[in-house]
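Batch job 17 of 40 flagged for manual review because the log was empty.
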Amino acid sequence: MTTRRDFFQWAGIAGGALASTAVSRVALAALPEAVLQASPATARPLTPATGRPYAPVVTLNGWSLPWRMRDGVKEFHLVAEPVVREMAPGFRAHLWGYNGQSPGPTIEVVHGDRVRIYVTNRLPEHTSIHWHGQRLPNGMDGVTGLTQPGIPAGKTFMYEFVARRPGTFMYHPHGDEMVQMAMGMMGFWVTHPREPHPAIDTVQRDFCFLLNAFDIEPGAATPRVATMTDFNLWGWNSRVFPGIDTLNVRLHDKVRIRVGNLTMTNHPIHLHGHEFTVTGTDGGPVPRSARWPEVSTDIAVGQMRQIEFVADEEGDWALHCHKSHHTMNAMGHAVPTLIGVDHRGLARQVHDLIPDYMVMGERGMADMTEMEMPIPDNTVPMMGGIGPFGSVEMGGMFSVLKVRRGQKPGDTTDPGWFRHPPGTVAHEVPAPTPST
C-alpha cells in the first residue's frame, strides 16, 4: 500500500476545495491518510480498531478502506485516479478507479456513524461521487451541476453525513458518468446495524462484489467508453474468470452475498447446490414475510441484491450469471455458426497456404479450450480455467462457492478442490451390447 505522504509527493496537489470552499495547505496536510492498494487478491476482512464494533465483509478480489476517528467522526480519504487493474493473469486493463484499484475500496460504517469522506481528484477531468441509495442532505448527493459543482482535477472536496439506515449501497460518479463508469469508477458501501435488527440475521460469512462490463479489444488495454450494449468482458470487481477468487465457507455457515449491478444490463445470478432468499436490496432489508426461496435472482441495472443461505452441502458449487455469453471472455460476436458444416476439403486447401490454420466451430465451441493457437498479448482466453476434471469452459462472471467441513471458523483461504466421496461422481458406463 502507498501512504498519503507518497501520494502527495507524486500527485503535485497544491490546494483543494472543501465542498465549494477553498481548503488551505494546512487543512490538506491534516487529511486522513490516502491508502492505496494495487494487489488484486481478496484482502482479509478489516476488523474495526476504533468506532462501533461490527462483523466486517469480505470484498471479493478487493479490500475495505481504513479510516480514522476524529472528534467522533469517521473520516475516509478516496482518491479518484487512473489505475492499472489485473483482470486475470496475463491481462491488465487501464481503468479509472479509486485508491489504486477499480472498483474502489469498500467503505464500511455503522448505522448512526457520522461520516466524513475527502475525495481527491487525480483524473484529467472533473468528477463527483454519488452515494447510491443513501439518505443524506441534498447538497451531499453528488450530482454535478445539480447538487454541487464538479470536483476539478487536482482538487479535494469533502462530503459529510450520518449513515441513517443499515444496508448495502454503492458509490459512483455523477459527472461525465457514461465515460467514468465505463472506465470502472464505482465502489461498495456497507452500513452495518448498530444493534440487533429484526430483519438482519447474524452470518458467519459475508461477501460483496460489484458486476462490471467492459469493451476492450483483444490486445488492447483501455475500454471503449461509447459502447452501450455489445460488451465483450463481463466481470466481478473488475476480474474475469479464471481470475475471480473463490468464496470459501465452512459447512453449515450462514452465508450472505451482496451483489451490486452498475453495468448496462441485468444479470440473473445463479447458485448451484443451495436455495437462498433475497434478504436485502439497496432500499433496505426485505421484510421476512416478503421472502421466498430461489436459486437465481435477477439484478437489474442500478440495483443491489443481498442473498442469504445455509451452506449445508459440501462441494465446489458454481456461482455465475445465467446469461451464457456473460460467462465467456473477449470474443467477436459476428462469428458465423458452423455447427454441422463439413469443411474438411476447404481446410486442406487453406492449410496449404496457411500451415497453422485451425478449423473452429464445426462441433461447437468447446474445442477452443483445447486449442493452443496464439492470442494477442494482454488478452485472456475466451473460456478456460482448469478444474479437477479438466477445463471448466467458463469465463467472465463465474466463480465457485467452496463448502468444507474442515474449514476453520473465520478462515477464508482457498481449501483446494473438493474430494468427492467414492461413488458420487458421474462416470462413463459400458455401452449395452447390441442384441443379435
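Reviewer: the log was empty due to a logging misconfiguration, but the result itself is present. Confidence is low (pLDDT under 50) at residues 2-22. Unflagging and moving on to job 18.
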